[in-house]
Design a protein that fits this description.
- The complex is a heterodimer of chains A (235) and B (260).
- Chain A is an alpha/beta fold and 235 residues long.
- Chain A has a single domain, classed as 3-Layer(aba) Sandwich (Rossmann fold), CATH 3.40.50.
- Chain A is 36% helix and 26% strand.
- Chain A contains eight helices and ten strands.
- A six-stranded mixed sheet of chain A has the order 6-7-8-3-9-10, sandwiched between helices. Chain A has a four-stranded antiparallel sheet with strand order 2-1-4-5, with helices on one face.
- Chain A is globular.
- Chain B is mainly α and 260 residues long.
- In chain B, 85% of the residues lie in helices and 0% in strands.
- Chain B has ten helices and no strands.
- In chain B, helix 3 packs parallel to helix 6.
- The two termini of chain B are 19 Å apart.
- The chains are: A alpha/beta (235), B mainly alpha (260).
- The interface between A and B is medium-sized, with 31 and 29 residues.
- Chain A: It comes from Ancylomarina salipaludis.
- Chain A: Keywords: ATP-binding, Nucleotide-binding, Transport.
- Chain A: This is ABC transporter ATP-binding protein.
- Chain A: One of its GO terms (molecular function) is ATP binding.
Chain lengths: 235, 260
């Protein structure tokens, strides 16, 4: 579905991605992991065309995305920080995104699912961080896109919302979608992801299933396996 | 582009800033009319206020808006929509909302004072027109600066410096040059330097229309003598359009390779 080929990106002298090659296929939940500043967000943003790489290419269904915008009709994206125009109301924001995408949306269902019925007429500036993240979720999940990209989706969410989110993710996966997400919460990774891509200083340091990673490191828990992985890399 | 424009405009005209800006203009123009009594004099006083304040407000407002909507811009960029449409839509939303506050804030007091039936109507319209052009130019400049510099302090600093340079420092430099080269013919130099500053162009344009040569100053008088009224007016309008279109061209080129 998505192929990343020899992708390199540097901000000034800071090399963020170094010759990255990945194939991402449908019907999987893929976790992109790595310490802060390892290039996770840059990788995601290159797929979306927000970041323009110096070298290499990203292909969406075998077509290069350089200078293209129509392919984004098939991607839903949840950005890391949910900040919206302060004076718009929740309903207006949802209407705006629907208006832009012109695709069928199940916003009402998701508004109920995340319990946002009473927030709809409030301006976005009056919402708490967690509520904004729920609005962000509605925006990301309301279209039936074959690819869903989530950048730190659980930040600010309460336990109820997190479990709803996981449920939703499972349902989306069952539809045969490709779901890519970044997080720092290892229990979430262990619970829901089929595949891990571990980035370290702009390189792919590990790619495979959770079980592979645990076996490879000889530890019993993902968290310690990841810690071992980082420590070994510095040795 | 129209969709983004529509939503930016709705967002902006409901912000407290627009309302404060509108109230400010209502206050300034009512007090100028009240103190001057005479409508011609009011227009000239208003001109000085406009030439100084419109660029300042457009600069500050443009930078604030751009920095506040950064994350939202990111959300838009991830949607199936061209970059060009997003940024042109946001820019026009910004410039039009500023222009609405300005037109209402200056227009209402003058309409109440009876400008529509007065012979000064055309001069007043020129004043509004110049205000609008300066609004569009300076909000564009600060929009671009804020897009280029992610660091807000740098962005605000540079935008404010552009305003300060164009509205105050530039005239000082112009004056110094004219004094230094007193014994040489400086008309061409003065004209060239005026063409390179939109605020000076705005002033010359209003002066040429009002035909009050006593208030023209050196550059205005040079324009008047060199080109005559109509040619001078056309030239200033052409130069002001370049001041608008060239930055838009630069903006469109820049956003193609910008990372977010």
């Amino acid at each position: 579905m998505i192929r990343i080929e020899n992708l390199s990106k540097a901000y000034h002298k800071n090399q963020v991605l170094k010759d990255v090659n990945i194939k991402l296929d449908s019907n999987k939940i893929i976790a992109i992991l790595g310490p802060n500043g390892s290039g996770k967000t840059t990788l995601i943003k290159s797929i979306l065309g927000l970041v323009i790489a110096q070298e290499g290419d990203v292909k969406f269904n075998d077509q290069s995305i350089v200078g293209e915008w129509e392919y984004r009709k098939q991607i839903s994206y949840l950005p890391q920080i949910a900040r919206f125009p302060e004076n718009l109301k929740v309903l207006e924001l949802i209407a705006l995104v629907k208006d832009i995408r012109q695709q069928e949306a199940r916003d009402n269902e998701l508004i109920q699912y995340f319990g946002l019925e009473n927030e709809l007429k409030k301006p976005l500036r009056n919402l708490s961080g967690g509520t904004r993240q729920k609005v962000n979720m509605v925006l990301a999940f309301m279209f039936d896109s074959p690819v869903i990209i989530l950048d730190e989706p659980t930040v600010g969410l309460d336990p109820v919302a997190i479990s709803r989110f996981k449920e939703l993710l499972e349902r989306e996966k069952a539809k045969g979608k490709l779901i890519i997400f970044t997080t720092h919460i290892m229990s979430l990774v262990q619970e829901i992801s089929d595949e891990i891509i571990f980035l370290l200083e702009g390189d792919i340091y590990f790619q495979g299933s959770v079980q592979d990673l645990i076996n490879q490191n000889g530890s019993t828990k993902l968290e310690s396996a990841i810690t071992n992985l980082i420590e070994n890399s510095h040795a | 582009m129209l969709k983004i424009f529509k939503y930016s405009l709705f967002d902006l005209i409901r912000s407290n800033w627009s309302i404060a800006y509108l109230a400010f203009y209502l206050m300034v123009s009512s007090s100028i009319i009240y103190m001057n009594g005479d409508i011609t004099k009011s227009i000239i006083s208003m001109m000085n206020v406009i030439l100084l304040l419109i660029p300042l407000v457009a600069t500050v407002f443009g930078a604030i808006y751009m920095y506040n909507s950064r994350e939202f811009t990111e959300l838009l960029l991830s949607q199936p929509i061209k970059r060009k449409s997003i940024f042109l839509g946001q820019y026009f939303g910004l410039a039009v909302s500023l222009s609405l506050s300005f037109i209402l804030g200056v227009g209402l007091p003058f309409i109440i004072r009876g400008i529509i039936t007065s012979p000064e109507l055309s001069n007043f319209l020129v004043l509004i027109g110049v205000g609008l052009i300066l609004n569009f130019i300076f909000s564009l400049l600060s929009f671009m600066v804020a897009l280029r510099f992610e660091n807000r302090i740098k962005g605000f600093g540079l935008s404010l410096f552009i305003w300060l340079f164009m509205s105050i420092i530039y005239d000082g430099i112009l004056l110094l040059i004219l004094i230094w080269f007193e014994s040489y013919p400086t008309e061409n130099l003065a004209i060239t330097l005026t063409l390179m500053n939109p605020i000076d162009l705005g002033r010359v344009l209003i002066m040429l229309f009002l035909d009050t040569s006593a208030l023209m100053g050196y550059t205005g008088a040079v324009f008047y003598n060199f080109f005559g009224v109509w040619q001078g007016i056309l030239l200033s309008i052409a130069a002001l359009s370049v001041w608008l279109l060239f930055p838009i061209y630069i903006l469109l080129r820049y956003i193609k390779k910008k990372d977010f």
